[in-house]
Design a protein that fits this description.
Length: 123
């Protein structure tokens, strides 16, 4: 007997259904992370759709359903990275003096680099 999606069958809890929007967003992030890793390891000219798909363990058709080109994927990744960097600045806006807020936000960005967990490719 087949149960309805999202409903338990024979006492086994069903997995919650994920929205198509959520799944597409996660795929886009996975492709962008793969592109960034390839660019970091091999240089930006080495970033190809084939390499991105292999690194992301996904099909080329899926890649092109989400992005028009490799450049589109890289643009998305840079935009996502920028949002993650700027989010602490935006959330701190308007609270007290601006300079300590900016210093605190930038310390949150650079602290992992100083501890050796990751290093920006420019350093």
């Amino acid at each position: 007997m087949v149960s309805e999606p999202g409903k338990p069958q024979d006492g086994i809890a069903a997995r919650p259904l994920l929205s198509r929007t959520f799944i597409e967003a996660e795929r886009r992030r996975r492709f962008a992370a793969a592109a960034a890793a390839i660019a970091h390891e091999r240089g930006p000219r080495a970033v190809t759709a084939a390499r991105i798909c292999a690194r992301a363990h996904s099909a080329r058709n899926t890649f092109y359903e989400l992005f028009a080109s490799v450049e589109d994927c890289l643009r998305f990744g840079v935009g996502e990275a920028g949002e993650r960097i700027l989010e602490p600045l935006r959330s701190a806006a308007g609270e007290g003096e601006w300079l300590p807020e900016v210093e605190l936000a930038l310390a949150g960005v650079t602290r992992p680099s100083l501890s050796g967990r990751w290093r920006p490719s420019c350093c």
